[in-house]
Amino acid sequence: MAKKVLNNPSPNVLMNSMRSIGYSFKTAVADIIDNSISANATEVKIYLPINDDDLFIAFLDNGEGMNKEELLNAMKYGSNHEKYSNTDLGRFGLGLKSASLSQCRKLTVASKKDNLISAFSWDLDIVLENKSWECLELEKSEIDVLPKIEMLQKNKQGTLVIWENFDIARKKSNGHIRENLSEEMEETEKHLSLVFHRFINRNFNQLKIYINEDKLKGYDPFLEDHSKTDSQKVSEINYNGSKIKIQQFILPHMSDLSNEDVDKIGGNEMLRNGQGFYIYRNDRLIIYGTWFRLASSSLNSELYKYGRIKVDIPNTLDEEWDIDIKKQNANIPKALLGSLKKAVNSVRGRSKDKSAKRAKLELKKDDSKIWNKDLNRDNKEEFFINTDSKFVKNFIDGFDDKDKSKIIRFLEIISASIPYDDIYNSMCNRALDQKIDQNNLESIVLEGIDQFNRLKKLFQLPNDEIFKTLKSYEPFDNEEIFNLIKEKII
Questions:
Q1: Which terminus of the chain, N or C, has fewer Cβ atoms within 10 Å?
Q2: pTM of whole model > 0.90?
Q3: How confident is the model at residue 172 (pLDDT cuts 50, 70, 90)?
Q4: Domains in the chain and their CATH numbers?
């Protein structure tokens, strides 16, 4: 019979290795907030350093708090959890420690319960030196000088997590730690607003997250309240005794979105690249913006970018979905591939139909416009300079046929060289009331005066009639431009 031999892991090696399992700054911060939500907190305050003499990050929540025994267990690698509830966001008993120490070398946790504050600390340097699982229990005098401890002392209950000694940030920033942490937090704000948007936006037991007293707003990646969002009914799949919920969305066309709508969805990058599945585990977003290879690459085109599929899974299916420690990766179980493939095809078809219908409505040649659009052989929208527009015709009217051909060929080359991506991003960022650039304005006004004079000479009509004709086509239909032309002529 085999002999049982105790073979404990080396703490100095294991703790150092766990720092490299793939946490980014934003996913590490999200993991700390997971613990606060599991403790039924309704408020989480994140404090960043405001000067170079106080380099720490503190997380304070108003959750249930822990007594000394519970806190010591929470600080254990592979902490015991007799039974996970169906609302728990944790699973492995590693998140608090592995997430924190992936970003710093010293983790301190103080918690208040039954009016008593307990505190323990992991200092990686001490573990490496002594090569033992020595978690430090802080005395009252040490607790009283912890950063932001006064905030916990004021609370009835809750937990304070403190990160110190940022060796990772020091390496990345050549010693400019505070600046690096501030830059990291800018990206983290967006991440938290998306990952926890359901908790932040709900009407009951709402979660409030503050960063240095600034309250975060939750995003809405589906724009569910928008009148032009195409949302389908929720469907359910029974899988291994648990229910998975699926809902399909087609976002409104970009031209139907205000600047406020774009901000609400998470910005231009989310609008452009956020298509695909959104997998939620107990309302917490795990992974998003991927089709899990259930769609051909053509799906990631402009025609299909508005399609999104929301999938809700319970934490009882973590193993089936391969949810990892960092809660940022998942894989679809093979038994569900068929059902989710149908959802992808449905979204693709509806998104394509919606875009095609809109294109059909919009693809009307208008000779009052300089730019028109048409569908190319791949059924994609393509913009072109309308050489039959009044502006172009009036401009080239004084040239001979040979020069006219050169000008038209030149305009066709410009049409074929449109930087669609740059224009798209600029249009998303542009305020609706943006003024015309002054240099462009002067050129347009001068051309407008020339065209007025040509029309006057050609038709021999009163000024009012010429002005009316001039204003009937771009770019002179712009009120600001037209008034300037009129002022110059009159």
A1: N
A2: no
A3: confident
A4: 11-215 (3.30.565.10), 230-359 (3.30.230), 371-489 (no CATH)
